[in-house]
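Q: Start with the shorter request: fold the first protein.
A: Done. Sequence, then structure:
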Amino acid sequence: MTFPIHDGSPVRFAAPLPARSDVVVIGGGVIGVMTAWFLCQKGLGVTLCEKGRIAGEQSGRNWGWVRQQGRDPGELPIMIESLAIWKRLAAEFGNALGFRQTGVLYLAKTDREMNGFEAWTEHSRAHQLDTRLLTAGEALAMLKGAVAPWKGALYTASDAQAEPRLAVPTLAVAAADRGATIREACAVRALDIGAGRVRGVVTEHGRIACDHVVLAAGAWSRLFLGRHGMRIPQLSVLASVAATEPMAEIFPGNAADDDFAFRRRTDGGYSIAPGGSEHDFFLGPDAFRSLRSYLPILKKDLRHARFRPMAPKGFPDAWGARRHWAEDEATPFEATRILNPAPNLKTLGRVQDAFASAFPGLGRPKLRAAWGGMIDTLPDVVPIVDHAPIPGLTIATGMSGHGFGIGPGMGRVIADLVTGGTVGHDLGRFRFNRFTDGTKIAPGPSL
């Protein structure tokens, strides 16, 4: 078995840095790429700086789901817009994105889960989605060879998937063709602040003057903001994923129960992962500082948390990680170009066993490859999408494992937020100061 996602790929985007840009975007994941895309559509000069490689971290390591189903109500309208954008992009780029509308199926083993599914349909009806509840018999009929004792399911046929390692780099090339300056292996070390507002950024390759900066740095956002005295309770958790060898098709789309999740891949195999949000929490200084903020979500699903006592060297929350540096010093962003954690093979072994129990005719799936990714999350499992206390800085981070699917819609929203355009959605749930203004922080009614 191989670990296919690493930091050894050659630099693909090496555009010379301009002396000045209208907007600098920090981070080359799907959020940063799509923000740059829509800013270019507005005719602005955009420079995107990525410390490692485009989609090198979680944007290239996720499940590949493009789903409306089960979203937090605050995210759902943006996700509906995002799906429409995905469809337009697929019409333009064809198979290059791996985009297919194959549906999302959530499977319930308990009455409690079914009650949760039924409650969420209130949101689907409000937005006229094609989501519907299925009986146990209807669910089994959709899955060839399934024998698991599911009580029923929630199904949204219009939901989709795409191939992360194909889609985001393809969209980055298109953004560059539309005028964005994209530079890999170019860490932004600090904001250049004058007269109380952003006036540029300092990168490892020099300064770029600008009036606006978008921070879309994923797992690294907290560290970057801390250097400038801004505190957010963002942590990163390890999600383990594997790709199987080619297998007979049991369902063409995406499905999950409490034990496993899968997505049919274009290569004939499946991407498989834990279905019950099982993640590894690495304990570092930030984790201890933020423990109180995370108690509600930990109490909600403590059995799926795997605590690791030491955040490894090179992680944003590692013990001994530098929190302060001068503009002319190398930074943690340069020391770890790509966050490339090893997957939890024990977790994936449990996924293989659960899959084999549900589909005994296929047996235990053989893994072609396995990988880990670090999900940037916040205590209420929704992002920060807001202007920062420093004028000229906009923050878009903490997508909490939902960023790939919602990325195109968020890119459009962020571009309008930066430029003062019509955002078209209520971003109140995503505001920066919700962690300090007395708001009760808890996960919303998502699945």
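Q: Next, the second protein, separately.
A: Sequence, then structure:
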Amino acid sequence: MSRRVSEIKDCLKTFEGDGIPVTRAFPIPGLREVDPFLLFDHFGPINYTPGGATGVPAHPHCGFEAITYMLSGEVEHKDSWGGKATIRAGDMQWMTTGSGLIHSELATEGFKKKGGVMQGLQIWINLPQKNKKAKPRYQHIPKDQIPVIKLENDRILIKVLVGTFMDAKSTVQTYSPVSILDAQFSTPGGITIDVSKEQIAMAYVIDGELQFAKNNETASKGQMIYFDQESDGIDLASVSSSGSYLILSGKTLNEPIARHGPFVANTEEGIRQAMLDYQNGKMGRLE
């Protein structure tokens, strides 16, 4: 028995950075977060002419973990704790902001020179209260180090970005118990993903169309699907000739959340302290 779909929601269309179009599942009016997930953005696709790309300049963060999963284009990450990497198409990064850091994600010189399509996903995951002040940490995972499970004669590929699936385990170390999978279909087909009923589950349509027979509903590109917690699995039936679907699951923390721009804490006092830490240089400097 699989979970039922509780809701299929359109995402908010907005812009960030240097005019990058963003499809945002949350936070949006009426949905601040989906514990333990704090933010879900699908940025792009945007086609830059040569010399047109910039990226996101230096800014602070604290109190959560963030994943950037590049679908196309490339950016360079730098942070005040020494993290540095070029994130290319298919790569991902996991950044533990913890007690606070400053980082930038700028288009590489090569990408700026030649131009091209920039597209990816950014997701924020809350840190448990006991880990809010953890030492910042950066993990870069090139695409060839992301485990891939091949099913149905290679017609379905499951990229294990975070967590485990079948006998594959991501190398990403997290503080919150979460899993993130990219299910890629090259033909119409179906699969069941095991998710403990103790965890919330969502699926985002990067590309393609999903059909849910129990609800007699379909979900298409740019929509987020929310599932109930009545069983330990979710069924995905892709009816497109090709499709890519991001499955997110995680155990709720059930802790108070205070947030202000780039800062996340458990109380308003925690937010004030984060602002002071940033102003007093305790989050480091970006060289």
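Q: Describe the second briefly.
A: The chain has a mean pLDDT of 95. The chain has one domain: 5-279.
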